Amino acid sequence: xxxxxxxxxxxxxxxxxxxxxxxxxxxxxxxxxxxxxxxxxxxxxxxxxxxxxxxxxxxxxxxxxxxxxxxxxxxxxxxxxxxxxxxxxxxxxxxxxxxxxxxxxxxxxxxxxxxxxxxxxxxxxxxxxxxxxxxxxxxxxxxxxxxxxxxxxxxxxxxxxxxxxxxxxxxxxxxxxxxxxxxxxxxxxxxxxxxxxxxxxxxxxxxxxxxxxxxxxxxxxxxxxxxxxxxxxxxxxxxxxxxxxxxxxxxxxxxxxxxxxxxxxxxxxxxxxxxxxxxxxxxxxxxxxxxxxxxxxxxxxxxxxxxxxxxxxxxxxxxxxxxxxxxxxxxxxxxxxxxxxxxxxxxxxxxxxxxxxxxxxxxxxxxxxxxxxxxxxxxxxxxxxxxxxxxxxxxxxxxxxxxxxxxxxxxxxxxxxxxxxxxxxxxxxxxxxx
Length: 434
Fold this sequence. Notes:
This protein is α+β, with helices and mostly antiparallel strands. The protein is 46% helix and 19% strand. It has two domains: 7-256, Tetratricopeptide repeat domain (Serine Threonine Protein Phosphatase 5, Tetratricopeptide repeat), CATH 1.25.40; 281-421, Jelly Rolls, CATH 2.60.120. The protein has helices at 7-38, 43-52, 57-69, 74-87, 92-105, 108-121, 126-139, 142-155, 160-170, 174-180, 186-198, 202-215, 221-233, 237-247, 418-421; strands at residues 281-282, 288-293, 303-310, 315-323, 329-342, 346-353, 359-362, 373-380, 387-395, 401-414.
């Protein structure tokens, strides 16, 4: 059976508990009062808060900011900031505030020491690195600013674009930034590549993509498509071809590389259409319905079917850009079937110079063929032609048309026959097509 405590001991215990509770309530009330006072932008209240809670570094820092920005007393601000960093030397923002105060007083040596301590307290924190980098820009210390922007880029995806913009502004040198600022990672290199393309810095973009390709790591193929398109628009098809060949294996696109026997990529439509790079690309056209048809094909396992139904059709919306050598003879062929065509003329397979738009070859209208029929020609590229566009166009453009067309087995290869050496023609090109 429990033995009851003597009355004296019970009273002593209750008294001790009461004292402890009173002390706790006092300290809690005191800290609460300090918190309320410190939240007011009022000097006496801030000073009282620091007295009520002398070990609170944040209150000391708030008092310093009051002296710095309201009472305009930099020496008093420095005293409060120093008290804050003494109480908590691990908060980088306290050191930044102290560095700012030293800047106002012209104390450069102590300012730099404060910045160093800020970075030592949180060396990989991106917000700290960002603030430090901007301090160094003001000081004209470009190398240290770039080093801190590198920390930002490596640790905070949300600040990558802004850090790259700032880095390029203070050091517009791709080699320097690739060496010391941009991490050798696909995400960082792609962001830098995008920046360079937006600024038209083509040589720098080529260097950056070379670094990316050397990683042999996978990234979203849409970035490759954008880069290839940028190079083509910049009239650098050789560089675009090189980028495509460098990156395709790592991105799982090796099957989309041209071969010596056929420069047309995915010519039998057995692969999915990438809608980018050097594969087929397409734009939805009103009155044209494209479909990969697995029910009817000549080679591979699918054909491309195009259903035409409507006026105003100038092309089928599908095309492929093909790098070629200037002044070279090529053998071109394709197969087609068609059904139920109505209207003047019809769709035609056309090869044009991708830059000048000059027609190198245009087939007869692809109508009235209920079996797989070949289109074939030998063409010779003009001296200035290095990129051709293969497309399906509608002649005469704009007039109503209805019908269905199947296409398959596109091939373009160098013609090495003796007769092609002296060929001057461009095959079955038609002078009346612009």
